[in-house]
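Support request, please re-run this one:
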Amino acid sequence: MDSIGRGTWYGGESAGGWYKRNEPESFAPPPQKPKKSRTGMKAAAVTLCVLILIAATAYIFSDGGVSSIDPRSTAEQSDSSAGSGSASPQTASTEGSGIPRAETGTGVTLTLVSAADKEELTLQQIYSDCIDSVVSIAAMVDGSSGYYWGTGIVMSADGYILTNAHVISGTVSVAVTLNDGRSYEAKLVGSDTVTDIAVLKIEAENLSPAEFGDSAELSVGDTVAAIGNPLGSAFVGSLTDGIISAIDRSYNMNGSIISLIQTNAAINEGSSGGPLINAYGQVIGITNMKLVSYYSSATIEGIGFAIPTSTIKPVVDDLIAYGAVPQQPAIGITGIGLTEAEQEAYGSPSGVYVATVTKGSDAENKLQVGDVITAVNGIAVASVNDINDIKADFDIGDTLTLTVWRAGELLEISLTLYGMNRTY
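Re-run finished. Output below.
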């Protein structure tokens, strides 16, 4: 997404930022020594940071317990998206947006088609088959001559368009331009800040919708292609290719989690919201993020991300039906599963370290930063994924019993789940 008129190419602090800086995680119980400014160490530091990132993503999770009443700070406010990506991807909130709203409850849903029995296509065939399903998006910023530039995907012949929530965050109008040059003013159907997905609607007919595949069928090493509009209108409809580098890459962005597809296909600013396409010409993800180094302004090449269709479908269906994603039951924490090395270093048992506690939740007066949750309802947990698996069987208002290690003592704490409102 281009932040023309706001911020810098790497985003700065503006809402239009897009790149994810490869920053150390917020959880660091022992304060680290200040880094010395030694030019000779920079290359090694960047490499080390990437290695830490890869290792960290295996165990860093949030509870998903954020709600609209949850001012966990901007760094923690939504289980959002990647995408916007300034120094780290901004929370993809569309709150305060002046974009006109579209009708909901139309009965339209997103269909995923299996790739079984389909024949692989050449890159030329993929581009030819998919380019008319890719659109350009220009979202105007309120009180400014600037706009955000992004990419979108035609979902239906009658004008439903998918893109990233961060592409339209804080804007007042959106223009969608088709591959043939026709331009339409779009209305906002709905936007989910957690998954970084937005649905737009234009008044058009006989468009060329993309075919959406099932990301659950992907394997590491599969060939993929991306089509987008890097750096704005100068490079509209650019094709890049690569492979699936990792699947279900759980990524901690500003204290919030999203599960992403990792790819080495080149993804650049302005490509946000564009399709990641499998070898059969099916969209299996929406591109939304890449990394830059924490230690310099250089990008880290070959590490890009896309939201998988297995995540996209239920969110899109909810947005079209209701204009929002229904509230989710939440405990009200962000946490980190402790490694064996961390357990030994800090003298704690296996469990989930509580990194933040949500204001307004039942956890606010019962849990503390530094607590380690070792079990939920008597079931041992080692990651926030474990907690979420248990929590999935409960509803808002239900009570969970947490076993918590605090300062060498084990406590039994009962918590009531509250409703997390994830959307605009």
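Helices lie at 42-56, 123-130, 165-168, 309-322, 340-346, 384-391. Confidence is low (pLDDT under 50) at residues 1-96.
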